[in-house]
Amino acid sequence: MHGDFDFDAFLHETAGRLTAYCAAVVGGADAEDAAQEAFLRLYANLYRIPNERAASAFLYRTAYRISVDILRARRRFREVQNPPAQNNSLSDRMQGALMQLKPLDRSVIYLRVVEESGYDEIAARFGKNEAWARKRYSIARKRLEAAYSEQG
Questions:
Q1: Where does the pLDDT of residue 100 fall: very low under 50, low under 70, confident under 90, or very high at 90 and above?
Q2: Taking Cα atoms as reference points, which of 29, 3, 35, 1 lies closest to residue 17?
Q3: Is the pTM of this model over 0.85?
């Protein structure tokens, strides 16, 4: 037990969601590595994290930063990602549109739509205020709509 929460239970409860979050930001290939690294960093910093809410915010913020670092490394080494299949199914079209977005936009959309996180929770995960989260989601949604239209 660390702080006001049980780390082992937190790990078990959060691992799948965090891996899915990382997959939305960085793609499936590196998602598990990013999630594991984020948990390791959380564990190393448990002494300064008072409760589960703070741990969750630290974890998602760290996972986002790790995912962005992975994307930067891919670009530096010019690794080519496989583009989504070019058929007319909605899921492929949406996946293609999502991959055109910046990692921050993908992250915010994933948290809001898939995890159904409130703006307060999104803001906490990025160390920002709720107004920032609302505006960031609005911007990301507009960018996704534009990218989706281009995929058509």
A1: confident
A2: 35
A3: no
